[in-house]
Design brief:
mainly alpha; about 5% strand; about 725 residues; five-stranded antiparallel β-sheet; single chain
Length: about 725
């Protein structure tokens, strides 16, 4: 009888040492049961036990001599299986513990370099992504700031950054190259030229109030290097116009209504309504002027501030202050002490309520002065159509001062007639309806019948009378009233012909004024009298009170001619210092002397009258106007006469002092006779063609002294204002 076979598989768990897989205990039990069942079914009968025919003798005994029954076999199999299971559990626990220990404490053995293959360069993904993100953030932030600045602040931040950047470049250029032999870029003329070009481009690119600042520099640039003078002579070109949309928005912002509602106008030829030109008749740095005719027939000039000015003015003036503060420290020049007063004047110039107040004040002063009444006219201001950014005034039909040919051409307007609107008379209505656009946007009628059929007629006026009226007006402002119009250039002066053939001067644009205190106004009168009579003691006393250490130079600057009554100490000192030096050294020393002169003049900053900055500007422009018209009058004599006479007419003085001034004024008139002799001598030479007018001769003398004695090259612009 063959033995009964029982198949029991060993556990198949994963061993950490040999890398073989061992089954879990529960898997091992199922495997054993499956093997036993499979063998029983395959080798025995249906009951799972082998046939007894293997025992040939049939006695039920095996080879070992023991009988094994069919019921005993399953029991033995069960006990054997249980023993193996217990043994396997113990072995499994030990194996797991050993595996954990091996995984935890067994040292790591790195692979050999040969097994790794060829080296591949690392890719720096993280650093590229990091810098890409930074660039993206910076771009997004810059774009956002630019959009906000351009849409909400009219590019004020961009303009300020542009100003600071150029300011640094110019400062470094002068710091490195302002010397007899510059490090870079050739000579001093090249240094001035390239920086003048940069500054000019900045002012034009920024526009707005920067143009106004540039014009202020241009008015003073005659004492600057010639390169600055040539460049800034272009600062007075017309500024670009704003669109009608911007104009309409400003009107709505100021009045809360449309232009049609505010002025009672119509752009569709509506009966009973006025009309207005959408295209400006003139455009300046701060505002532009539109013509309109109201429903009642009055023709008006509507001055509209450019929309961006309100947002830019604060930033622009702040940038100007910062640059001047840095330059004051960097170049050791006392410029900043003048900045607050200058910025205050510029800020007031953007306030049209202030301009309206100045215009009405000047109109009242002119009307109360018999010597000017009927000779000077100030346009009416219509307050009901005016605000801080809108000013509506009477429209003026006249000839600009620079049109000298039309001023003097023969009058063809008929006897007993004058220019349209003269003396404030209403303008005659147009002969045809002007409600229809002619295709150019112009609706204003042309009132030029006085030119005759040939169109060559003029006002037929005397240039001497025109210039006399001008000097009388501005002298009264300085010496009698203490209220000075500081922008009397030819574009702000109209001339009209009165019925009796005399000229009428119309003064517009009253935004830039200075108010002189009574004490300072009297000092200025005395100073003018002193320089006319060579009273050096009085000159030294007044200039010392103003903090000026070079009285003879200051007197020459005031007269705009060489002052011959001083001790010439400054002139002699400068001349001796320049002897024996090369051209480059002389040029450098002269400009260094100019810097020192500025320090001397402004050394006592608290005493220097800020009003002198703008009063001097007025004087230069008036002199330029006189020279442009051919020097028809003795400007210096007339100005001195008003200075002396104003001390007599000053109602703020006591009667004893006024009587003393009257006696001195009588003596002063005899002194002025010598000035008349010089003037008429120059007029005779001018008529005979032997020379120019008196202003031309004064210019020649000033340029000679400035260049040969002081090394300063004055250009013609200094005498044109």
């Amino acid at each position: 009888m063959s033995s009964h076979k029982v198949r029991i598989d060993a556990p198949r768990l994963l061993n950490a040492k040999n890398g073989t897989r061992e089954m879990r205990p529960e898997e091992d039990g199922h495997a054993r049961e499956a093997d036993v069942k499979g063998e029983g079914e395959g080798e025995g009968d249906d009951d799972g036990v082998e046939d007894e025919d293997e025992d040939e003798d049939g006695d039920g005994e095996g080879d070992d001599g023991k009988r094994v029954s069919k019921r005993t076999l399953p029991t033995l199999h069960h006990h054997a299986q249980r023993s193996v299971t217990l043994a396997n559990k113990a072995s499994f626990s030990k194996s797991c513990i050993q595996t954990i220990q091996n995984q935890r404490f067994q040292s790591f053995t790195p692979p050999s370099p040969e097994s790794l293959g060829k080296a591949v360069p690392a890719r720096h993904y993280r650093r590229s992504i990091k810098w890409g993100r930074r660039l993206l953030y910076v771009t997004a932030l810059t774009g956002t700031l630019y959009i906000l600045d351009s849409q909400l602040y009219a590019s004020s931040l961009t303009r300020s950054l542009r100003t600071f950047g150029l300011g640094i470049v110019v400062a470094l250029d002068y710091k490195l190259n302002f010397r007899p032999e510059p490090f870079f870029g050739g000579d001093l003329a090249s240094l001035h030229r390239r920086n003048a070009e940069k500054l000019f481009e900045l002012l034009h690119q920024n526009g707005g109030l920067y143009l106004k600042i540039g014009q202020a520099i241009a008015m003073q640039s005659a004492v600057l290097p010639p390169e600055f003078q040539k460049m800034f002579a272009r600062m007075f070109d017309d500024a670009p116009q704003n669109t009608w949309v911007d104009v309409e928005n400003v009107i709505r912002e100021e009045f809360g209504k449309s232009p049609e509602e505010v002025f009672g106008i119509s752009f569709s030829n509506e009966p009973g309504k006025g009309v207005m030109e959408k295209k400006a008749r003139a455009s300046a740095s701060v505002a532009q002027v539109h013509w309109a005719r109201l429903a009642d027939g009055r023709e008006v000039a509507i001055k509209v501030q450019k929309r961006e000015i309100e947002q830019q003015v604060g930033w622009d003036l702040w940038s100007f202050k910062v640059v001047m503060k840095v330059y004051t420290w960097y170049f050791n020049l006392p410029f900043y002490s003048l900045v607050p007063y200058i910025t205050e004047r510029l800020m007031l110039e953007t306030d049209f309520v202030n301009e309206a107040n100045n215009a009405e004040a000047m109109a009242n002063l002119v009307a109360g002065e018999p010597r000017l009444r009927g000779r000077v006219y100030i346009p009416k201001v219509y307050r009901e159509f005016s605000s801080k950014r809108i000013m509506t005034a009477e429209w003026i039909e006249g000839i600009r001062l620079w049109d000298k040919d039309t001023l003097t051409a023969r009058w063809l307007g008929g006897s007993g007639k004058g220019s349209p609107g003269v003396n404030g008379d209403p303008l005659p209505p147009p002969r045809i309806s002007t409600c229809e656009n002619d295709g150019t946007g112009h609706l204003k009628p042309d009132r030029d019948e006085w030119k005759g059929r040939s169109g060559k007629g003029g006002l037929g006026l005397s240039l001497q009378q025109i210039m006399t009226t001008m000097i009388d007006l501005f002298s009264a402002q300085m010496f009698l009233w203490g209220l000075v119009h500081c922008d009397p250039h030819p574009g702000n002066i109209f001339i009209r012909r009165q019925v009796d053939g005399r000229p009428e001067l119309v003064l517009i644009d009253h935004g830039l004024y200075v108010y002189m205190k009574p004490a300072f106004r009297r000092q200025y009168c005395q100073f003018w009298k002193a320089i006319m009579t060579f009273d050096n003691a009085t000159i030294n006393k007044i200039t010392s009170a103003w903090g000026v250490k070079a009285p003879d130079l200051f007197a020459s600057a005031t007269l705009m001619r060489p002052y011959e009554g001083g001790d010439s100490s400054t002139r002699g000192r400068v001349t001796s210092e320049l002897k024996g030096k090369t051209v480059a050294e002389r040029h450098f020393e002269v400009q260094e002397r100019m810097r020192q002169g500025i320090r001397d003049v402004l050394s006592e900053e608290e005493n220097f009258p800020r009003e002198l900055l703008f009063i001097g500007r007025n004087m230069r422009i008036v002199q330029g106007n006189n020279q442009f018209l051919g020097s028809p009058v003795n400007r210096i004599k007339m100005t001195g006469w008003w200075a002396s006479r104003s001390l007599v007419d000053d109602m703020g003085l006591g009667w004893r002092e006024r009587w003393g001034n009257a006696w001195r004024h009588l003596l002063f008139r005899f002194v002025l006779l010598s000035s008349d002799i010089v003037f008429w001598g120059s007029r005779i030479r001018q008529v005979l063609g032997w020379g120019g007018g008196m202003e031309d001769e004064l210019e020649r003398q000033m340029r000679y002294i400035a260049k040969d004695q002081f090394g300063v090259e004055l250009q013609h612009a200094v005498f044109e204002g």
